[in-house]
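User: My instructor asked us to take a sequence, write out its structure as tokens, and then describe one feature of it. I'm not sure where to start. Here is the sequence I was given:
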Amino acid sequence: MKVLFILCLLVTQLSAEAIEPEEPDIVLPEVILQVADLVVENVEAELPEEADLFPPEREAPLPEEGELTVEEPVMPLSAPSGIEESMPATEPGLIAEGILGAGSLNHLYSSISLYQMGVEPRFKLKFLHETIDGFAGHDQGSGYNFREDFLWGGVKFEPGDLSLEYSGEFHDIEKGFQGKGNFTSRIFRAGQGRVEAEYPLGERLWLLGNIQAGFFSRLLTGSNVEETTEILAAPEISLELRLEKGLLGLSSRYKYGSLMDNDESVVTRLELEGYFGVDFQPQLRVEGSGGWFWSEALGNLFPFALDLSGALFDLLSFRLSGGYHIEHIDHRLIFEDYDLVETPESLRDNHGWYSDLNLSYSLSPQLSLLGGGNLSWNSAMIDPDEVTGIDPASGLFPFRQVDADRFSSRIGLRWHPLSVLGLSANWEMEWRDHPGFTPQYKIRLEAEVKERLGKWGGNGYLQQQDWPGSQLPLMGISGFYKLSGTIKLILEIEDILALFQNDPRTIWYPYQEPGFYGIVKVQISL
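Assistant: Let's start with the prediction itself. The structure tokens for your sequence are:
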């Protein structure tokens, strides 16, 4: 009996020790909390922006055609920046975007964009159609009209080491003559294509080539029809050595231009250019180019350019460039950018010395000061004759090219007092010669507000320049609201102050601008 009693006491003691350990090593709630943190962690990955879908084109150190001139559009009907270019992040595959709009002055707008991402072949396809008829207080069909049709497509292949990219476009812009002259309207029509290729000859040596060709015409419609068409073709081949902190290259170009049915208008240009780019530390890059140019009209010239860009102490960024440039003046430039100017019998390429400076200084994380200037000597600047006025028969202004010394300055402020609010002010001034129908000064104030998650937003601007006669500043507002993740409602109102102006707004006097109008658009992204 005593033995049994002792055994019971031992069992009871052992059970108590097993149930209540003095120093537990594992606490289950802590492990459970750690696992829960891993489950709810939010990991985001953003896809590239639309502009990054295709590799960027190589930038030549020389300025592009028309870079040194400041032109005002005859009819600014484009949507404000940032309204139509936003694309939702999505998985690789096909992206589609459509925009439909209707507004006052019989204004209709439609565009379709298709993008192929992530898989070969990658491509882009864009289509635009826009019309407005009966502006500045005039009836529709009276010659106060504008129409634009645009179709562009590009595709990129990479068979093995070879990279090929094809692109082509068709552009058709019609503007009414507003009852001036014997013609009804003028139409700029262009069709062109471009082929680019890259092939590695070694680990760092690349062979590049491209060719672009097209036709560009101006058609004057009415009881009598006049059409002038220019053919342009320009092949180029380059050899490029890509180093770890720079590159060296040599390129040769040939350009042919001629008006159809006019053998005397043939223009050929030959160019041989060497270029380089070197990255220095800290944040400093030097680029340069130089070579030989020949044309029958100018003979032998030796253009060059030197470009220095960088940043100091993460506060001041700068870009200083200069050299001797040649600007190709083709009939295409006249038809597209100077559509109210007569077709010249002959053209001269513009050339001369130039220098350009751009500065950006961060006064604070929210406030930046921008500035710069441009100085150029031009041998054949395009300068439409605004003093003589239009030809009563054609309704066009006389064309001329003149020697011109140009000096322009620009200064601006950008302020972001809040993360959702941005303000800017800019002033541009031409101090010496400048082309006719371009402003001597321009002041622009702009404000933009956007909800933190991009649900809604808007912007507005006020612009004053030396308009012909007594004209009020140009003022416009726009805004958007996302009805869902794929549907956006857009409202745009242009030239609000035209309602309070007695005389119609003009730039190329006596041709009138649209004045006040508004449009509502719906953007659908899939």
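For the description part of your assignment, you could build on this observation: Helices lie at 2-19, 28-40, 331-337. Try explaining in your own words what that tells you about the chain.
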